[in-house]
Amino acid sequence: MDYKQKMLVTGEILASVLAYVYLKDNKPGSYAPNPRTSVIQTASRCSNQKKASPVQKENWEGFSLDQLVDAGIEVESNGNPTAERLERHLENTYFKDAKGNPIKGVRSIGLGQLLTTTAMDLEKRHPELPRLGGTLAEVKSSLRNPQTNREYTKALLLEELEYYQNIDHAFAAYNSGHKRPEFARIQERLNDLYGLHLVTNGYLKNKASQDAVRKFQKDHGLKVDGIVGPITYAKLREAWKENFPEKKDLTGAIPVNPYTPNHIRKVRRVLKKIKEKRNANRNFLEIEISGYKRNNHPSRNNAQFKVDGTSKRRAFLG
């Protein structure tokens, strides 16, 4: 084997090694750190050390659960672990902490802006999550911890994703309450069946919605009480499918109110940025590898290409 052949073989081996190292450290879906979200990414790395649930779906519309959590956190708190606000619509609500002490008002705390009451309920349902403590002060302190808050945010979002099987409806539930998208979908079905114009805001206790529910119950021989219990709900879905067999019957809908649709638009904008960054990384990798192969020909100046390739890579990732 002459000198040129040896150099060609060496160059091909080097290209394979470089491609492997690049693919290993820059997996599709990853994106360059943003100083504004460094706290989020640090917490993400910590939480990824835990074993994933065997029933957890690997991706949603091509997004991983961690990417969806990142998007939710950026919209909720802009990555600020100390963010806190009093929920005005719940300021006169009373609840009890783990020790039975009465507490007035509910606050949203930390990266995922979790309600203190929601976090305490999650703690009961998920023994694998870090414990929050017994008093309100301990709960608030725990939720200000970025890693703990992210774990709770992730658990809540996964619950909503598995229930609704839809990103928009899951984030709508996260934003407006677990049942709101489901109730909005009930209103949509009633509108379809009776030609009504109920505002699909997810509130079933208003007179118009209750009258529509009572009419449906009366028409189908059910107990007429205006309450959508399990029997009424099952019958409503059955009747809707019979009348609209060509349409897909989703579990939820985005509630029509002054804040939830805008919240979903913000989440979608963040997810779009994540997708664009991921695609840009993938396209750059393909261009770099193909460029290396072209420039690795014996008639080209390999050394010059390596210098140029390194500088281009730094400019792109920097």
Summarize this structure briefly.
With 318 residues, the protein is mostly helical. Helices cover 59% and strands 4% of the residues. Helix 7 (167-176) crosses helix 11 and helix 11 (260-295) packs antiparallel against helix 12 (302-317).
Descriptive account of the structure:
The structure is a single chain. The protein is mainly α. 59% of the residues lie in helices and 4% in strands. It folds into three domains: 1-30 and 282-318, no CATH class; 65-170, Lysozyme; 180-243, Muramoyl-pentapeptide Carboxypeptidase, domain 1 (Orthogonal Bundle), CATH 1.10.101.10. The chain has helices spanning 3-25, 38-47, 65-77, 116-125, 136-143, 146-164, 167-176, 180-194, 207-219, 230-243, 260-295, 302-317; strands at residues 84-86, 94-96, 102-104, 107-109, 114-115. The strands form two sheets. Strands 1-4-5 form a three-stranded antiparallel sheet. Strand 2 (94-96) and strand 3 (102-104) form a beta hairpin. Mean pLDDT is 78; it is low at 21-55 and 301-318.
